[in-house]
Amino acid sequence: MDQEKIGKFIASLRKEKGFTQAVLAEKLGITDRAVSKWENGRSLPDASIMLELCGLLDINVNELLSGERIAMENYEQIAEQTIVEMKKQEEHKNKKLLTAESVIVAISAVSSFVIILAGLLLAPYRPTVGVILCYAGTALALCGTIYATTLEHDAGYYECPNCGNRYVPAMSEVIFAVHYGSTRKLRCPCCGKKGYNKKVLTK
Ligand SMILES: [Zn+2]
Predict the structure, then answer these.
(1) For residues 94-129, b (16+ Cβ closer than 10 Å) or e, as one string?
(2) Which CATH architecture fits 3-73?
């Protein structure tokens, strides 16, 4: 698949429809950064939103994946197989991101604990070093948390417990949301209700 060609095709259809990148992103419940990545040929739309995207752009999946309008119909089956394959890839990629998140949380928690502990133990003898270590440990814990949250935000979607809508919320909402594990209290953009949104890997 020619990502660059597909990207240019998406961009031209989007403009034909009079959508900005932000409008298209909003309709699909994804970030406009994702749309910009497709259009620059740096990534392909996730299989899980491909059909919705095709619907919005008035093309079929064959056309999307070949980056041009085509009249043939016997490729439909091939495209469907491609989608199944890509959905698997998406799930795999998101699983890896979430695993990375857990590893980062564990490593930064343990190392910041050790650094802060060392700071506290040293403080009576070397106050300056002790304070620096305490600050460094805290900063490390904070950076680890933010980075891990970014990974969680980018992996898959959050599912509204009320209406079942799956979406990607803004990063700021995710960071400040009450959570346990990767289940976060968020407001659903579809039904507007607040609830504990579970992390799901595909749309
Ligand atoms: Zn909802």
Answers:
(1) beebbeebeebbeebeeebeebbebbeebeeeeeee
(2) Orthogonal Bundle (1.10)
